[in-house]
Amino acid sequence: MGLRLITAGESHGPGLTCIVEGLPAGLELEQDAINRDMARRQLGFGRGGRMKIERDRADVTAGVRHGRTLGGPVALQVPNRDYGNWEERMNPWPVEREIPEVHLPRPGHADLVGTWKYRTGDVRDILERASARETAARVAGGALAKAFLRAVGVEIRSHVTRITSITAPARDKPLTVEDFEGVDDSPVRCLDDETSRAMVREITVLRKNNESLGGIFEVIAFGVHPGLGSHVSWEERLDGRIAMAMMSIQAMKGVGIGDGFDVAAVPGSQAHDEIFFDEQRGYYRETNRAGGLEGGMTTGEPVVVKVAMKPIPTLTKPLRSVDIDTKEPAQALRERTDSCTVPAAGVVGEAMLAHVLADAYRRKFGGDHIDDVREAVAAYEQRIGWTR
Ligand SMILES: Cc1cc2nc3c(=O)[nH]c(=O)nc-3n(C[C@H](O)[C@H](O)[C@H](O)COP(=O)(O)O)c2cc1C
Ligand SMILES: C=C(O[C@@H]1CC(C(=O)O)=C[C@@H](OP(=O)(O)O)[C@H]1O)C(=O)O
């Protein structure tokens, strides 16, 4: 069995729940590590007023005893502090007062189509679950996948490479885990200081002009064993699974593995990673244009994923829309909103990549206890002669 992650919860409801099923027993978890990721997801220049209210933390309510998994589903609860301000509007049960409905769908959000599909005249019935508040629960669950991956030697990092027109300079050497030290100190989680400052200026100027912003983040998994995923059927291809997981994050519009869209622009001799062999190193590559995936399987090189985010749909100077009650032209809903969340999205991307990779390890190596997994991984390393 693989790993399953399920979330429940609305943006302004009592809280979010995440259940992760399929972790082996005996996996050591650290409460601080989970909550560190929860806090990292809240950071980033360009966030709105909501992040001043929330102090996200995940409480473990099932599946863990004295810091170790028991082998059953793990349940995590993330309270919404903002619920205090929404108790009447978001109460699970009928309330005395009549609650005003929302009738102004925002272009780019789930609002309009959601009302048709789910037979409601109140946009709030849709936007509450469509909201990326849900990603707090994914990050909590992803932290468990990260703990599992760490136990088999895999580390995941992310950084922002673009905010609208501002792009980080190309790097002359492949990134290592060490290069990411201090990335969270940048207000936009960018590795280059000068670009970081330019990105902050860009956000400041566009936000003042009532604009929102998108961009690109990159997630890299280091130390991944070769042979996760499979070429034998479309559903098993790991590049496909990674793309699905990334595209499922709210507002993501494009995913590239390795050189991604850029390989379409170069001839074959510059698109692939030639194969070499050395008695000491075994098989090796001098490039990683494929981003650690060939034939839907990991190659043993770092897994590199680039993800493009569209600008946030809610604008402080709203776009044109239609009142779904009167059918009259109107301005879209004007709500408290983030203007740029690419840095936060990168942390969510880490969680999603961690989940997909941990799932692939569970499928390939099985094991009821984490030591079973470690032993199976070590036997495989020996068989194929693979070292990091
Ligand atoms: C971390 C994060 C925060 C977001 N914050 C907002 C926000 O404040 N306002 C908004 O309109 N959209 C926000 N979004 C984007 C919407 O949730 C998303 O565009 C919407 O659910 C529609 O889904 P789609 O863009 O994938 O089609 C955010 C996305 C992420 C990843
Ligand atoms: C709450 C979070 O993000 C929210 C995502 C979001 C949306 O429409 O996606 C809209 C905003 O919600 P609110 O209207 O309450 O400010 C964001 O703050 C979060 O990331 O924790």
UniProtKB/TrEMBL annotation:
GO-annotated biological processes: amino acid biosynthetic process; aromatic amino acid family biosynthetic process; chorismate biosynthetic process
Domain of life: Bacteria
UniProt cross-references to SUPFAM superfamilies, sorted A to Z: Chorismate synthase, AroC
This protein's pathway: Metabolic intermediate biosynthesis; chorismate biosynthesis; chorismate from D-erythrose 4-phosphate and phosphoenolpyruvate: step 7/7
EC top class named in words: lyase
Catalysis performed (reactions): 5-O-(1-carboxyvinyl)-3-phosphoshikimate = chorismate + phosphate
Keyword entries, A-Z: Amino-acid biosynthesis, Aromatic amino acid biosynthesis, FAD, Flavoprotein, FMN, Lyase, NADP
UniProt cofactor note: Reduced FMN (FMNH(2)).
Enzyme Commission number(s) of this protein: 4.2.3.5
A GO CC annotation given for this chain: cytosol
Biological role: This reaction introduces a second double bond into the aromatic ring system.
PANTHER family: CHORISMATE SYNTHASE
Quaternary context: Homotetramer.
Protein name: Chorismate synthase
Species for this entry: Conexibacter arvalis
